[in-house]
Amino acid sequence: MEKRARFKSAWLPYALVAPQIIVTLLFFVWPAVQALYQSMLLQDAFGGYSEFVWFDNFRTLFADSNYLGSFKTTAVFSVLVAGLGLSLSLILAAFADRVIKGAAVYKTFLIWPYAVSPVVVGVLWMFMLSPTLGIVSHWLHYVGIDWNHVLNGRHAMILIVIAAVWKQVSYNFLFFLAGLQSIPKSLIEAAAIDGAGPVKRFATIVFPLLSPTTFFLLVVNIVYAFFDTFAIIEATTQGGPGKDTDILVYKVFNDGFKGGDLGGAAAQSVILMTIVIVLTVVQFKYVEKKVQYA
Predict the structure, then answer these.
(1) What's this model's pTM, rounded to 2 decimal places?
(2) Domains, the chain
(3) Which of 63, 128, 266, 282 is close enough to 38 for a disulfide, judged by CB 3.0 to 4.6 Å?
(4) How many CB atoms lie within 10 A of CB 139?
C-alpha cells in the first residue's frame, strides 16, 4: 500500500516550498526578466541615458561577424571540454574502481582539482605553458613543438580546454566512480564466466548501466562549458589572440563591462540563456531516450 505524507495544515506545504520558490524568483526569474528588458534598451556606459529600441540590439548582433564567429568558437570549446572531460573521467574512475592498494590516496589526488578556484586553475596552466617560463612548453620545445598561446590561436584554445577539463574532471570522476561502485559485481562476474572480455563487459554491461550518470554529467558539462569557464579564460587568454578564444559568455563581459555596450551585452546574455535552455531540452527530449534506468 502506497504511503503518502498528509498535512493537517493547509499552509504548511506552501511554507515548506516557499524558500526554494523565493530563491528561484530572486536569483533566476527576476534577473532573466531584467536582462530581457535591458536587451531592448540602448544605454550609455554609465546608465544615464536609455532608449527603448525593441529588437535593434539583436539585429546588430546577428549582423556582426565577430559575434557569429564566437558561436563557432563556443561550439568547438564546449564539445572538446564535455567530450574530453567525460572520457578522461570515466577512464580514471574505471581504474580507481579496480585499485586495491592505496585507493584512498589515488582518489584523493583526483578529487583535489575541484577544490581549486577557476582563476587559480587558469593562472596555474598559463604559467606551466608560458612560452618563456613554462616547464611544459620547454618539454614541448624538446620534441619539436614551439608552443606560444599568446600568438597562436590553436595553442590558446588547447590551453583553455586543458584548464577547463582539469578543473571539471574531479566532479565527473566522483559521479562515475559512484556509478561504477553501484553496479552489482555479480553481473560482471557472470559475463566473465560466459567468456566476455573486459572490453565487451564494459560495452555491454557497465556503460549501459552508467547511462543515467553519463546523461546527467553531459548536461552539467555543457552548462559548465558555456557559463563556468569565464574565469579561466579571463585569467589565461582574455579571449585572444584576436578573437580565437572569445566564447559567448566572455564576449558578454567583454562588450558589456569593457566596451560599455550594456544593451548589446544584455541581448547576448538572453541569446546565451536561450541556447543553453534549448540544448538542455533537446538533451532531455532525445538523448534521454537512450538512457537505461535500471
Answers:
(1) 0.87
(2) 65-115+165-290 (1.10.3720.10)
(3) 266
(4) 12
